[in-house]
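Troubleshooting entry. The earlier prediction with pyridoxal-5'-phosphate gave an output that would not parse, so I re-checked the input for stray whitespace and re-submitted. Clean input:
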Amino acid sequence: MSNTQISRSLYDQIMVPNYAPLNMIPVHGKGSRVWDQNDNEYLDLTGGIAVNALGHAHPELNKALMEQANKVWHVSNIYTNEPTLMLAQKLVDNTFAERVFFANSGAEANEAALKLARRVAFDNYSPEKTEIIAFYKGFHGRTFFTVTAGGQATYSDGFGPKPADITHLEYNNLTELEKAISDKTCAVILEPLQGEGGVLPIDKEFALGVRALCDKHNALMIFDEVQTGMGRTGELFAYMGLGVVPDVLTSAKSLGAGFPIAAMLTLTKFANSLTVGTHGTTFGGNPLACAVANKAFDLINDPILLEGVKQKEQLMRQLLSDLNQEFAVFEEIRGAGLLLGAVLNAQYEGRAKEFLLASAEVGLLVLVAGANVIRFAPALNISDEEIKEAMTKFKKALQAVTLK
Ligand SMILES: *Cc1c(COP(=O)(O)O)cnc(C)c1O
């Protein structure tokens, strides 16, 4: 099955060294299992970082991909195409949105959202209304605009002059926001649960407060649901569980369940500012991506699957807290749905990566979110049996690290 000519060491010779991949190379997968070049089996609680919402090699997604592959792959924006319109219709019918813009990655969807906010302010208020408020530990992608909006300056330092007029505040601190926001603010961008920043949930009061302050100052409230969207928290989108409706929402990761696609959703009154020629992308709304995302949408927007996510969250929490009784490594388990973080306690502070590596050793794939949080983002259709099996493996990893 695997190509033995290709080895991990080649990575270090010819790839730009901006990642540090594990030593094993996954070569195929099925559901929540993957196999490496040596046919070692792993249980996958990473979901490709909250992307493979329906696991690997899902037969219906494969079918949708192959059917579209035999029709047309790409047509460009000189034309529209059926899969794009079908998917946009589903997004509009099932969310607050009236308008959709497709892109290829979370960063690009957020880039579009930020540009939209600047343009709406320019068109309707004043050329000085350019301030974007964002939050520390937030993550919005790696284009220069979005990474500067992100809450870790180290990710945007050293690349020359940064996009200007972005203010960072403490997440969940409404008093700070109240002081900072003004009529010069054109947008507040935030995640309804900070994923990369440590699986940190939003306070409902804060979310409601952001909404009210955005209304007061005519600023767009942008919910970055790139990680939390498409069923991840047990709702189709996390805003639905918060009772707070944003003006703009971005989705990517699980939207294509493994095929690259992203979307920016908004209302007509805002969308009108992106007139012909103001923004665009070659691949966004590509028929292949949209065909897969259409099928993924139907499978994820299913009350039984979404309810299952909430039940599996309870099972994961229970098993993790049982393990914690035995090993005393976690300070808390936090997150929502199948986006959970096990926060290490003071004794194990900064050692999340060790737990990730020890897990891989015993055939379990997990994520980290910073140095202190072990993150789990499995496929939404993972079975209870697989969760139990995964936690039995995780126990071995905990043993290995705590014995050190
Ligand atoms: C992953 C992520 C992004 C960036 O998405 P890319 O597809 O990597 O550009 C943006 N926002 C959030 C919340 C994310 O989790």
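This one parsed fine. Residues 105-107, 110, 139-141, 191, 195-196, 224, 226-227, 252-253 surround pyridoxal-5'-phosphate (CB under 6 Å).
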